[in-house]
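for the recovery benchmark. tokens below, seq after
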């Protein structure tokens, strides 16, 4: 036991010599990561502000009912948040469409309202979009067109049926007044259709806002790639020295235990140096996270201890990768490839909710996926037992594999 403690202290001294330079590197990474997150959030806000589809409307817009309908859509209907209808001249609309300023052009034929009034419905509205826009936007507009046509024809049938019933009952003098009342009721029903259901927005990562999702992602990515930042600790790995320690009674398990404990402290020191400026930014309201709005840095420092199991798991994984690789260069390359690959598949760079189902399932099986689920659940204050089991299961697996590789190297 004394030999194990002495070996741990020796590793600890090595770590202490690397710590000042390591903290400077960590702070530089923090600044770069913070700038990247701010850029991503700014782009997301700009994109959110410009998501309306601009559609030019050309043709016969002189009918009073049609003009009223366009004005109602633009001023009162829920679709105004998604679609902007712009009355334009034919040439003006074509030029704007070619410049990419319009998503599509709708051409209203002459006599459209008369065909609707008389029930012929033989004048069709033409909707023109480019072939490259055949995606979600085109599907949405197709649904809107289908809803509009269904609404018009069904409303038309209801009005004609009502007029026929009144005529059959000898109440012809009421037809005009009742037609107006039914028209107003149908218009009100169309405008109030948003009240028939409730849209529940879950956000990213089991309900996190985009800001908190990327905030967790930056910390997790830092921990995942800390093996690259701490690679200097593994420069002097020597198989002969491991054999010497084995002969002195410090076996593979004790060697790995001492190295892992010292390395974990170095990772935690880096995490602390990263979280200090983040906490300062939250306390000064330089960083805005909707879930913690108005609460300063208190929720963050309460949430921070939940990264300790994740840091322990990633430290064990990085120790294993360095132990399994032949030479420090191979170890660094292995850390880089595994870190970038795992981070991407588990949604550290881009929300995994947008990935295909197979890719998302693969990302969740990886250690980085277990860490993401653990941290995201911790941010919401409800970590399930399965997430705890996944993190500690990977931690035990990596430490066991590292000990086995060290035993194999000693026995060669």
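predicted aa per position
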């Amino acid at each position: 036991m004394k030999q194990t403690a002495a070996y741990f202290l020796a590793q600890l001294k090595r770590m202490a010599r690397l710590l000042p330079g390591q903290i400077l590197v960590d702070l530089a990474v923090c600044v770069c990561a913070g700038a990247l997150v701010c850029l991503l959030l700014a782009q997301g806000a700009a994109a959110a502000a410009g998501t309306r589809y601009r559609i030019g409307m050309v043709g016969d817009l002189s009918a009073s009912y049609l003009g009223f309908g366009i004005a109602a859509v633009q001023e009162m209907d829920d679709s105004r948040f998604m679609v902007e209808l712009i009355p334009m001249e034919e040439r003006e609309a074509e030029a704007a469409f070619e410049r990419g300023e319009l998503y599509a052009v709708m051409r209203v034929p002459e006599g459209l309202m008369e065909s609707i009034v008389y029930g012929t419905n033989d004048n069709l509205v033409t909707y023109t979009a480019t072939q490259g826009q055949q995606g979600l936007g085109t599907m949405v507009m197709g649904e809107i067109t289908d809803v509009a046509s269904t609404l018009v024809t069904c409303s038309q049938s209801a009005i004609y049926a009502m007029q026929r019933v009144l005529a059959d009952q000898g109440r012809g003098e009421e037809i005009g007044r009742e037609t107006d009342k039914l028209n107003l009721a149908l218009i009100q029903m169309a405008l109030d259709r948003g009240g028939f259901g409730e849209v529940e927005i879950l956000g990213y990562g089991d309900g996190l806002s985009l800001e908190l999702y990327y905030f967790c992602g930056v910390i997790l990515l830092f921990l995942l790639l800390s093996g690259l930042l701490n690679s200097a600790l593994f420069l002097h790995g020597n198989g002969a020295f491991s054999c010497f320690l084995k002969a002195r009674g410090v076996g593979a398990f004790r060697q790995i235990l001492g190295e892992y404990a010292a390395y974990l402290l170095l990772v935690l020191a880096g995490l602390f140096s990263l979280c200090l400026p983040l906490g300062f930014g939250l306390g000064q309201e330089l960083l805005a996270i909707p879930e913690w709005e108005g609460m300063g840095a208190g929720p963050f420092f309460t949430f921070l201890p939940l990264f300790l199991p994740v840091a322990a798991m990633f430290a064990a994984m990085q120790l294993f990768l360095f132990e399994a690789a032949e030479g420090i260069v191979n170890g660094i390359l292995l850390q880089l490839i595994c870190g970038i690959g795992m981070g991407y598949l588990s949604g550290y760079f881009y929300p995994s909710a947008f990935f295909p189902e197979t890719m998302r399932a693969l990302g969740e099986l990886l250690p980085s996926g277990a860490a993401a689920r653990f941290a995201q659940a911790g941010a919401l204050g409800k970590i399930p037992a399965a997430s705890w089991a996944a993190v500690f299961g990977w931690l035990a697996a990596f430490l066991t594999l590292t000990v086995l590789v060290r035993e194999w190297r000693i026995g060669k």
